[in-house]
Design a protein that fits this description.
Elements: H1 6-15, E1 21-27, E2 33-39, H2 43-48, E3 52-54, H3 72-75, E4 80-85, E5 91-92, E6 100-108, H4 121-132, E7 136-148, H5 178-183, H6 185-198, E8 202-207, E9 213-218, H7 224-244, E10 248-250, E11 264-271, H8 295-306, H9 308-315, E12 337-339, E13 346-348, E14 358-360, H10 369-385, H11 411-420, H12 425-428, H13 430-448, H14 453-460
Parallel strand pairs: 1-6, 12-13
Antiparallel strand pairs: 1-2, 3-4, 4-6, 5-6, 7-9, 7-10, 7-11, 8-9, 11-14, 13-14
Helix pairs in contact: 4-10, 6-7, 8-10, 9-10, 9-11, 11-13
Length: 463
């Protein structure tokens, strides 16, 4: 990872002399970009490597709290932590009226190394392990989200277009609906322009099956940290542009009970030292019926299945995340795999042999992309190194809409498996694993310790 220096700052300001404010984007373990805004007189200190923030920032809970289970040895007294700007991420923020720029930052040691508190650290660990075996990943993300209706009441509802010429809202499933693109054209174009400005390489935007839901895909890149940066910036862009257009956007995994949740699909392949895709099959023998003859792709899929339960607290990090996983909800129900089948957890999309890849379909849109990519690549490596076998693929014609859910269905259950696991720790780092589990457990305890309105609806009168 390369950090920006003062020369990059000066070059940027020579073309953007009106910029007076800089937002420092600090990723945390929730997958949120925490932000500090500084004045122009402070810009240079950041690019010299002198700028510090509280060390606790990456481990704040979703509500901004530091939970008791997180280590006092690591965070007691809330010491300072150096942050450094990531090269190539300095850009204007187009949805503000004031002259504001932004830059992604990383938490570093005084020597300029990524500190373990940075959410990129587990992914960098996995990449080093892969590199030691001569393997290079290529990855990309697909993110689903909902636009929110600004005319609703206190409870959110999806933004659904009106039937042209009427006041009637469009109902029902309207996948890739042209009218949705027309209705949201100005917003989507602002998203596109912001992505170009911030270096996020889009490939496609379309409306999803559920009303008000959208999916945006990013182009594959050879650096998984960069792919995760793209996902983080994309979420910020969508939410920022939506506010500019007097609406909102949410990447909650399950914001609405009666329609599909939102996922973050990961596309990943591995290449050897000669640049060959190790998932490719022998072109003289491969057919759709014999695709599973590729040893490496079978082993990688088996490794993902073998580490799935242990990784669920990363793929589904919040109590709400588990509402996605139920029959008929357009989300996987277990560690299934297959060729060109969109209901399985681990899909091999139709592609050329050079681009043969695994599509990991388990993560929610609320998950931290750095940690998700780390767990996905670790699972693939685990399966290949141990020559694991995944069993038979799901036939393409199989209907999984009523399949029973075998995944953990609550965060506490997933956290128990994460804490007891013996596979991912060596990839992600022992300190990270311990502190991430403590943070998520604190949040689960906080969430389940509150009395929601639903309790009153169910029990207040009857009991």
């Amino acid at each position: 990872m390369k950090f920006a220096d003062v020369d990059e700052l000066e070059y940027f300001l020579s073309d953007n002399s009106d910029i007076e404010l800089l937002e420092l984007l600090m990723p945390d373990m929730n997958g949120i970009l925490r932000c500090k805004r500084i004045q122009k007189a402070e810009f240079a200190s950041l690019f010299r490597g002198d700028f510090q923030v509280p060390r606790s920032v990456p481990f704040l809970g979703i509500m901004g709290e530091m939970y008791d289970g997180v280590s006092q040895v690591e965070f007691g007294g809330d010491p300072d932590q150096i942050i450094r700007p990531i090269a190539g991420t300095l850009a204007r923020v187009p949805w503000y009226e004031s002259p504001v720029a932004q830059v992604l930052t990383a938490y570093t040691t005084p020597e300029g190394k990524i500190d373990w508190v940075d959410p990129r650290s587990p992914l960098i660990n996995v990449m080093e392990i892969l590199a030691g075996d001569g393997l290079s990943p290529v990855t990309a993300t697909e993110l689903e989200f909902y636009l929110l209706d600004p005319t609703g009441d206190d409870r959110p509802s999806p933004l659904v277009g009106k039937i042209p010429g009427t006041r009637q809202r469009q109902a029902g499933i309207q996948y890739c609906m042209v009218d949705d693109l027309i209705d949201c054209d100005a917003l989507l174009n602002d998203i596109r322009e912001a992505c170009e400005l911030h270096g996020v390489p889009l490939t496609a935007i379309h409306s999803e099956f559920s009303p008000g839901q959208w999916e945006i895909n990013t182009h594959h890149v050879e650096d998984p940290v960069l792919a995760a940066d793209h996902a983080m910036l994309l979420r910020r862009i969508v939410k920022g542009v939506a506010r500019k257009h007097d609406t909102g956007a949410t990447f909650m995994a399950k914001p609405f009970a009666d329609i599909a949740g939102s996922g973050m699909h990961i596309h990943a392949s591995l290449y050897d030292r000669d640049g060959a895709n190790i998932f490719a099959c022998d072109p003289d023998t491969v057919t759709e019926a014999t695709l599973e003859a590729s040893d490496n792709i079978r082993h990688a899929i088996a490794g993902l299945g073998d580490t799935l339960d242990e990784a669920m607290a990363i793929f589904a990090p919040n109590p709400n995340s588990y509402r996605r996983f139920k029959a008929g909800a357009f989300a996987p129900s277990g560690p299934t795999w297959g060729y060109d089948h969109r209901e399985v957890a681990l899909r091999i999309p139709r592609s050329s042999e050079k681009n043969r890849r695994i599509e990991h379909r388990l993560s929610g849109a609320d998950a931290n992309p750095y940690l998700v990519l780390a767990a996905v690549l670790a699972g693939m490596h685990w399966g290949i190194c141990n020559a694991l076998e995944p069993g038979s693929p799901v036939p393409r014609e199989a209907d999984l809409s009523e399949a029973p859910t075998t995944l953990p269905t609550r965060l506490d259950a997933a956290l128990h498996l994460f804490k007891q696991g013996d596979k991912l720790t060596s990839y992600l780092g022992e300190t990270f694993t311990r502190e991430f589990a403590a943070m998520r457990q604190g949040e689960s305890d906080d969430y389940h310790g509150r009395v929601p309105d639903l309790d009153y609806a169910f029990y207040l009168r009857a009991i």
